[in-house]
Amino acid sequence: MKLWKRTLGLATMGLFATAVLGACGNGGTKESADSSDGETTLLMYQVGDKPENYDQLMEIANKRIKEKIGVTLDLQYIGWGDWDKKMPTIINSGENYDIAFASNYSTNAQKGAFADLTDLAPKYASEYMEQLPEMYTTGNQVDGKLYAIPVYGNAWAQQVLTFNKQYLDEYNIDISKVGGSYDSATEVLKAFHEKNPNVAAFAIGQSFRASGNFDYPLGKDYPFAVKIDDSGSPKIINQYEDPEFQDTLRTLRSWYEAGYIPTDAATSTTAYPLDQNTWFVREETQGPMDYGDTILSNAAGQPLVSKPLNEQLKTTSQAQMANFVVSNTSKNKEKAVEFLNLLNTDVELLNGLVYGIEGEAWEKTGDTTIKLLDGYEPNTHMAAWNTGNNMILYTQDSITEEMIKERDESIENATSSPILGFSFNQDNVKTEISSIMNVMSRYISNVNTGSVDPDTTLPKMIEDLKGAGWDTVQKEMQEQLDTFIAENQ
Question: Does 362 fall in a domain?
Fold first, then answer.
């Protein structure tokens, strides 16, 4: 079902900014309220760390917001370390707030926690909604209705192997044949490891999940997937039973045995920062707003070079990457949607939040291009990916018109997942899913990091998953998916 006609043209503005994901932060709870002088203040919850110059940013922003739509914004940050505890508490308590970065979007939408925006969005946010590619509205439907205003950012995602160029140059390593599979990088890893065995050749830890040509209805942590290139109606499979994916795990096992993967990978939380030379290769996710390796290299402060593992793919998870929802408890639903429209269409407002204070953090070099100044620091602005419409952000003047053209063409031409827009309702199989995740917790890190032999471990893992109710969940998921496909053909 299409909620809006797509009107995307070639844009002339893009993105330079990356999220700095904090592990802590403070965010209280308070009532959304009208001030004593009758002024409406919207209470909004955002995930992440509050910028150090928050007061200055918000003073400038609120002046603009009040001029445009007659309200002000009370933006409360909740740190990443607290988000999964605090936001569910806020939602479940029925607190009166207006806007929030979506927490468990589909599940809470189904529970009625979020306002139905199917009619409100085209009425109060039509300017922005008409700019969105169809995948965002398709990917955010829950039971045929829309409950979110998504951030237009990386409309597709692609897994890549990213190389530290300093080491490529130092050891004269050729990566021209790398791409399309992990195995294609084996000889390159071998060459590096022989030269520098004390640096992690493939820098991964316990959270690493090997990539394949799949879409995952519940995410990579779950043993449910749909193959992208299969013909016919999409089928729910266990990716760990797929022969190609098993070959990938065998490759990772061979890397582990050869010493290319850290010996403690299955339990390690080592970060391997981008800006340090503690790694040779890492797996990254890139999208159109990254302009190839431009944004990644800027974040690292050193040149990086990437090779694709799979294709550019539009998925439900990408569509829901950064959603803003209006609480069903809000007394200001219309104004909340109007504000989200302003945030995503007002160039002055959004760029001031994402880049920081003009003249201190950045200065314009053209109508839509900027130069970053010494005052541009990670803690003096908001993140682009979860603040607003990346297509109206200024670009660094190093980003060329050709790069912008390639970005827009890639958004148009990227492959859409066969299950784009599908949301699985877990109500009938909650017990089985809980048991399945208990099984996965015992195996998943060991299997994906190559720390165990897949040929002996996978049969045990698959048997345990069956015992936990995998077939029951697969049947329920397949039935829901078949219904979804039939209703959307």
Answer: yes
pLDDT, tens only, 411-425:
999 999 999 999 999
Domain that holds residue 110: 33-154+318-416
Instruction: Read off the CATH number of the domain in which 63 is found.
Output: 3.40.190.10
Q: Whole-angstrom Cα distance, residue 102 to residue 124?
A: 19
Which of 52-61, 391-400, 455-464 has the least mean pLDDT? 391-400
Is 30's pLDDT higher than 90?
no
Supply the DSSP symbol for 358.
B
Across-strand partners of 226? 215
Q: Tell me the CB-side half-sphere exposure of residue 15, using CA atoms within 13 A.
A: 32
Give a yes or no: residue 306 inside a domain: no
pTM (two decimals): 0.85
Tell me whether residue 84 is in a domain: yes
Report residue 193 CA to chain centroid gap: 32
Strands 99-101 and 71-78: unpaired
Using CA atoms, how far apart are residues 349 and 452, in angstroms rounded to an integer?
51
Residue 243 has pLDDT above 90, yes or no: yes
Q: Which secondary structure element, helix H or strand E, spans residue 251, and what is its range? A: helix 243-258
Q: List the structure tokens of 299.
A: 């974040």
Residue 223 in domain: no
Our count of domains for the chain comes to 1
The pair of three-digit structure tokens given for residue 431, joined into one six-digit string = 């017990």
Q: How many CB atoms lie within 10 A of CB 152?
A: 22
CB-based contact 274:163 (threshold 8 Å): no
